[in-house]
Amino acid sequence: MLTYISRRLMMLAIVVLGVTIMTFVLMNVAPGDPAEMVAMARYGLENLTVEQVENIRISEGLDAPVWIQYMHWLAHALKGDLGRSLVTGDPVMQEIMVRAPATLILALASLVVSLLIAIPAGIISAARQNTMLDYLARTGALLGASMPNFWLALLLILLFSVTLGWLPVFGYGEFRHIILPAVTLGTGLAAITTRLTRSSMLEVLEQNYIITARAKGLQEGNIIFHHAFKNAFIPVITIIGLQLGHLLEGTVIVESIFAWPGLGKLLVDSIYARDYAVIQACVLLFAVLFVVINLLVDILYVYIDPRIRYEKKG
Amino acid sequence: MALLSIRNLTTVFNCQEGMVKACNNVSLDINQGQTLGLIGETGCGKSVLGLSILKLLPVNAVSSGQIIYNNQDLLALSVKEMCQVRGSEIGFLPQSPATALNPVLRIGEQLTEGLQLHQGMVKEKARVIAMDMLKSLGLKDCDKRAADYPHQLSGGMKQRVVAAMSITGQPSLLIADEPTKGLDAVNRAQVIDLLRQLTIKTKASLLLITHDLKVAVALCDEIAVMYSGEIVEKGSADQVLNNPLHPYTQGLVASLPERGLFPIPGYSPSLLDDIPGCRFYSRCPIRNENCKHQPVINREVNGVHVRCLYVDQSGGTQQRIYGRGFQSEAV
Ligand SMILES: Nc1ncnc2c1ncn2[C@@H]1O[C@H](COP(=O)(O)OP(=O)(O)OP(=O)(O)O)[C@@H](O)[C@H]1O
Ligand SMILES: [Mg+2]
């Protein structure tokens, strides 16, 4: 198990290296002069002077070749120094630490929403295959999967904030603020999880050990929730793990729409301002989170599926 | 009064290809304490018959007829009522122990959950009984095994666990589907011994589904021979195996290795096909034109029921096709 984890952590290093290099390159090929945009963000458009732009270019090292900029960044990052925001001048680490909890809370809430919808819907859908309930769940899943987040967000805002006036359009700090963003993100996730739970349950319910369990006289509820679901849940976990990656991606859009003060919004704002240091740090964090979550899911497997023991693999 | 009487049981699977008639108008009786062997080649519907009794078939299967157990028709029972019968009245020993155990639950839990449910036992007591059962089946280190998951057990161990599971509830009738399949000689003898003990000790009846005529000889009072969804011959084990009447039974006996391994030529008809005459027609050595179209009726000859137009009253087909009958041997 330990060798397995250390091997995975080595892969993490490679992934992070690749992702950060790619971000660097992409930022530099994007149109627009970064020094100018940073200056614009710092001093505003009206009183912008050429000297200011050139000063920034030199002081922030933006005149050096891309690979030197990257090496510079990497050397500092390895020492735990992610630099300062080009716009505000604050340490990036500090900014991220302020923003991260908001994203974490939103991601967790969305995950909870998605599981609360998907697991019961998937189980019922499988247990009542080809009934009205099943069709309802499947249609819902199809809708959820095909609806883009930004559109669903707008619809929800229209209905619950504008028309009914029940929930705020944006804000942070109270429970009612998180409902709309979490539901927006959660329903999209729920769609895929519902379908997978359903198909996984259907497959498990055909297995011989389910017949054995029935032959013991166990009640249907016990069979479905205990004997079948414990098996059906194993592939579902993989998908949930992968989805957490998409969840991070989703927060970027949803946080911007709902003005949720998390990393996603920070990333979008800093892309507009070409705040390299912040962009790079956000991407780094997302990449690390993505890999670590998947590693955690793999470790979780061991506790759920007794047949998997990583140390036995070569 | 028989413990279990099956009357005109027909089980049909609705599939894309059509209706698969896996059990066709089957009637059988099993008396208290008696062992009935159900033999026949692969795919003839033996497992389907066993599963029909407990109503364990998938939703696309429809059973009609009657299955009377203790004066109640199992086919008429609700799902809830069926749950009371399964495991405590009628036990089921499934065909393949390798896939019959839930891979993510510990052996101990799988063994005791039935007891806890039916007898309302507390966990500890159920555990003691289950461990005793495992020990009596010759499984070593029972306590350690109980904490294991199925993949940690060998095939023989799984077989014993599954066997223990099917009888912990002390059912009056046990349906054992190929309990000796895939076992080596020693294990097979042990399982046979176990089943024999069980029927003697608990006076339970046994429906023994098997390919293995030796096992059938060792254990059965009565034998029913199934061919392509139908029971073609049934009677006392001695008569059916030593003096087989139906040409299919004769062929089955003659196909045994020690009888010279004469295979029955041809294949059994598809269960999708409705055949007006005899279903064995295409492979029968004594067939004649009548057999193709004329509906076959069950006839009784010397207490043996046989489904063939050309079995004469003296107790044999006109000619002996495959030589001597089957001599029972020690297994
Ligand atoms: N779920 C199902 N849907 C459609 N047909 C089925 C289904 N289950 C079984 N059958 C059909 O029923 C027939 C009888 O199957 P069954 O498992 O009872 O055979 P068997 O006599 O037990 O054979 P074996 O000795 O190999 O176990 C098979 O030919 C199969 O095609
Ligand atoms: Mg079978």
- Total domain modules of chain B: 2
Q: Overall 3D geometry of chain B?
A: globular
> What's the CATH first level of the largest domain in chain B?
Alpha Beta
**What is the number of E strands of chain A?**
0
Strand content of the residues of chain B, in percent? Answer: 15-25%
CATH topology of the largest domain in chain B: Rossmann fold
CATH architecture of the largest domain in chain B: 3-Layer(aba) Sandwich
Count of helical stretches of chain B = 12
Rounded Rg of chain A: 24 Å
CATH superfamily of the largest domain in chain B: P-loop containing nucleotide triphosphate hydrolases
The H/E string of chain A reads HHHHHHHHHHHH
Distinct bound molecules: adenosine-5'-triphosphate, magnesium ion
Q: Tally the structural domains of chain A.
A: 2
Question: Which CATH first-tier class of the largest domain in chain A would you pick?
Answer: Mainly Alpha
Give, in spatial order, the strands making up the sheet with the most strands of chain B: 6-7-8-3-9-10-12-11
The greatest inter-chain interface is formed by: A-B, 24 and 35 residues
Q: Specify the overall morphology of chain A.
A: globular
Number of helices of chain A: 12
Uncertain ranges of chain A: none
- Annotation, overall tally of beta strands of chain B: 14
Q: What profile does the largest beta sheet of chain A have?
A: none
Question: Can you characterise this structure?
Answer:
The complex is a heterodimer of chains A (about 325) and B (about 325). By secondary structure, chain A is mainly α. Helices cover about 80% and strands about 0% of the residues of chain A. Chain A is globular and about 85 Å long. Chain B has helices at about 45-55, 80-85, 95-100, 105-120, 125-135, 140-145, 155-165, 185-200, 215-220, 235-240, 245-255, 290-295; strands spanning about 5-15, 20-30, 35-40, 60-70, 70-75, 90-95, 175, 205-210, 220-225, 230-235, 300, 305, 310, 315. In chain B, the strands form 3 sheets. An 8-stranded mixed β-sheet of chain B has the order 6-7-8-3-9-10-12-11, with helices on both faces. In chain B, strands 2-1-4-5 form a 4-stranded antiparallel β-sheet, covered by helices on one side. Chain B starts with a strand and ends in a 14-residue tail after the last strand. Magnesium ion (MG) binds near residues 46, 47, 95 and 177 of chain B.
